[in-house]
Specification:
single chain; 3 domains; 5-stranded parallel beta sheet; 3-stranded mixed beta sheet; elongated; binds adenosine-5'-triphosphate; binds magnesium ion; binds zinc ion
């Protein structure tokens, strides 16, 4: 349910009568088929399949059950009910796993939230061998990796105990080494500066400029300058990945996600959904970056849905059967051209043929409220070749990242969260301006026609700029720089 693993109790009752197996408690197709796998697995591993009437109840009854994960506990339930294995210690464990016909255990999705739930219930988690690494991310829970049905039976019979998985074997990495370096980008100092501010404070960023000026290039280098995730963040992100369709890679967990869905991606793929709600790109980007390249090409309705998670950090998916909530605290990085042809306002060549109407229509695909939620708007202009050639002393990602980490540290010490997540009360307290600066901001807001939300967002960005400068208070220069990042809104 969302990212929660809900405990399911499996009851098995054997009575005399015509041999028959009945599964009740909202099982779906894959669970109904479970009886065939369980039957074969038991018969292929020396056990007897009771020739009685077998009733299996999956409780709670109103929760739809899907997938093959119940195979193992169903098999053990039948074995215990027919007294082929002892049942006295079963309640010390949580079991999960899909059975192959020969009794091998196959990996399943969502083992990470299950391991968390097992820890909270003070039970040991019995998981398929291939899922052990994933479960091992959770500290403080005993994990029993199982390759075959016989292994766990032999363990429960106290013949051959299973060795506990060493949870420390799954260390978390915090830096993606394969990411291209920021020093590859020539010129574009203004954009690089904005990228650094966005990374430091977790702010949303929109880049606008003609084709081929390095927007996509800049965005793809963002992960290389982000601060490392905290333990808690890493665990949250891993949990979402654990229940996602293409799963979770325990070898690279702990790295902030960078998701760049294509603009043709469906609404469900982006925001999540399905009859069994699955997380979409916005949740897979939790605690990381959601990069929307060619922003105006995205389905307008999908873009509007983004407004909720940007503000709240999570997304709710309602379906007839149930409602699921997924975390979606992503940092939005978007790129776009200034007009349909791409060349509007390009100083080096004047080839834009778009009519004013076309430009307006193009820009209006991104609504005011969405734009309002993006703190930093920057232009990534075409730069003369000479300028680019001259730019030889370029900083690498590592240098920038050091500054970003220092600024983030200050934020975490101040409010235990990045500036982007500051609430209005935090802002009133920590983003004070001098009287003159207050007036300066009022004037700017009025002149630019910005909203009250923009007012708060400008203050948050100013705070980050001050933190990068290691300044206790927000200075006039910090505020002024922050205001410049909102000026694109009126240029139409
Ligand atoms: N500032 C730059 N420094 C170095 N190389 C650059 C720069 N800008 C562009 N390039 C080169 O041009 C290529 C295209 O850049 P990129 O894809 O980032 O452009 P873009 O701004 O995203 O364009 P579009 O609007 O068409 O998507 C890059 O792969 C790179 O080789
Ligand atoms: Mg591009
Ligand atoms: Zn144009």
């Amino acid at each position: 349910m969302g990212v929660q693993a809900i405990s399911v109790t499996i009851e098995v009752h054997l009575t005399n009568g015509l041999p028959k197996l009945l599964i009740v408690g909202l099982p779906e197709a894959a669970v109904k088929e479970s009886q065939e796998r369980v039957r074969s697995a038991l018969l292929n591993t020396q056990f007897e399949f009771p020739l009685q009437r077998i009733t299996i109840n999956l409780a709670p009854a109103d929760l739809p059950k899907e997938g093959g994960r119940f195979d193992l506990p169903i098999a053990l339930g039948i074995l215990a009910a027919s007294r082929q294995i002892p049942s006295d210690t079963l309640s010390e464990y949580e079991f999960v796993g899909e059975l192959a016909l020969n009794g091998d255990l196959r990996p399943v999705r969502g083992v990470l939230p299950m391991a968390l739930a097992a820890r909270n219930a003070s039970r040991q988690a019995v998981v398929p061998f291939e899922n052990a690494k994933e479960a091992g991310i959770v500290s403080g829970v005993s994990i029993l990796p199982v390759k075959h049905l016989l292994d766990i039976c032999s363990h429960l019979q106290k013949i051959t105990p299973i060795t506990l998985y060493d949870n420390d074997q799954t260390p978390h990495s915090n830096y993606a080494s394969h990411i291209a370096d920021l020093s590859d980008v020539r010129g574009q100092h203004h954009a690089k500066r904005a990228l650094e501010i966005a990374a430091a404070g977790g702010h949303n960023l929109l880049m606008m400029g003609p084709p081929g000026t390095g927007k996509t290039m800049l965005a793809s280098r963002m992960p290389g300058i982000l601060p490392p995730m905290t333990e808690q963040e890493a665990l949250e992100t891993a949990t979402v990945l654990s229940i996602a369709r293409n799963g979770f890679n325990a070898d690279v967990w702990g790295i902030r996600p960078f998701r760049s869905p294509h603009h043709t991606a469906s609404g469900v793929a982006l925001v999540g959904g399905g009859s069994h709600p699955r997380p979409g790109e916005v949740s897979l980007a939790h605690n990381g970056i959601l990069f929307l390249d060619e922003l105006p090409e995205f389905d307008k309705r999908v873009l509007e849905v983004l407004r909720e998670p940007i503000e709240s950090g999570h997304i709710t998916i309602s379906r007839a059967a149930n409602t699921a909530e997924f975390p979606a605290n992503f940092q939005l990085v978007a790129a776009m051209n200034p007009c349909p042809c791409g060349y509007l306002g390009d100083a080096t060549n004047n080839r834009c043929q778009c009519s004013a109407q076309q430009v307006t229509r193009y820009r209006s695909r991104i609504s005011g409220p969405l734009l309002d939620r993006i703190d930093l708007h920057i232009e990534v202009p075409n730069q003369p070749r000479i300028e680019l050639r001259k730019d030889t002393a370029r900083e690498d990602s590592k240098t920038v990242r050091t500054r970003v980490i220092a600024a983030r540290e200050i934020q975490l010490q101040r409010c235990q969260k990045p500036n982007n997540l500051l609430g209005n009360q935090d802002i009133d307290k920590h983003c004070r301006l001098s009287d003159t600066d207050e007036r300066l901001l009022d004037t700017a807001i009025e002149r630019l026609g910005l909203s009250a939300r923009a007012w708060y967002r400008i203050l948050k960005v100013s705070r980050t700029i001050a933190d990068l400068a290691k300044s206790e208070s927000i200075q006039t220069a910090h505020l002024m720089e922050s205001i410049t990042y909102r000026q694109l809104e009126r240029k139409k």
